[in-house]
Design goal:
The chain has about 60 residues and is an all-alpha fold. It is built from 3 helices and no strands. The chain is about 85% helix and about 0% strand. Helix 1 runs antiparallel to helix 2. The chain is elongated, with a radius of gyration of 14 Å. The N and C termini lie close together (about 10 Å).
Amino acid sequence: MKTRTAISLLLVGTAMLTFGGLFKLMHWPTANIQLLLGGLVQIVGLLTLAASVVRKPDLKELLER
C-alpha cells in the first residue's frame, strides 16, 4: 500500500472520530459505530504507514511513493 493511501486512511479515520465525538455529544444515534470504525481505520492507516517507514528508511524516497 502506498504512503499516500496510508495518510488518507489516517485523515478519514480522524474525520470519523471527530464526527463520532460530535454525535456522542449531541446524543445522536450511530455515535458508537462511528467511533469504533474511525479508530479501526486509524489503526489500519498507522500500521500501513509504519510498514512503509520500515521498508523505506529514507524520508524523501518514502514521500515520493
